[in-house]
Amino acid sequence: AQTVTQSQPEMSVQEAETVTLSCTYDTSESDYYLFWYKQPPSRQMILVIRQEAYKQQNATENRFSVNFQKAAKSFSLKISDSQLGDAAMYFCAYRSRTGGGADGLTFGKGTHLIIQP
Amino acid sequence: NAGVMQNPRHLVRRRGQEARLRCSPMKGHSHVYWYRQLPEEGLKFMVYLQKENIIDESGMPKERFSAEFPKEGPSILRIQQVVRGDSAAYFCASSPIVGVGPYNEQFFGPGTRLTVL
Question: pLDDT tens digits for B42-54?
């Protein structure tokens, strides 16, 4: 079974600064997807960014980028130019690609990101 | 295109009662997933359904919990004889037909917060 570990229960960053959230995972599979989800106080799960394991290039979405290290099974999220609206819980998630990529997601316990004005 | 809809948003039950949680997937989506989020935890996969079929229920508790996704109507997560430990947020996600698009992204509903008194 796959596991996802987020070792930082809480992180704090000044507005406009850069912050990196850590995520490691354990799997015996070679092909899979990795995701970062944001959960604001409304509790709605919002997809921030995704990465396919076979792609060596790190995914980027505007101010959000990842550092994907497949050999180390590490998948960190970097948020540049932090904004007050970025304050939320952030969850790292894994999804197997076997079975057509239709499996359920495995989530980490989350990191609470605080933005200091 | 309306997003994934869940109702009720909040549900209060006394111990021993039944809880029924409903999920209407996005239009055109035939795959539904249910997740449970306990306080201070990440989401945990419970069950994956297609129309009239349970595909993977490896995350469902063996007793008191059941799920269905009928040919017509919403998916239902049913919890019989609820206990205090069932208090959690229950999220539904839907996905289009497997094979359409590389990611088969799961789109999440706003969740139902169940409180058991």
Answer: 899 999 999 899 9
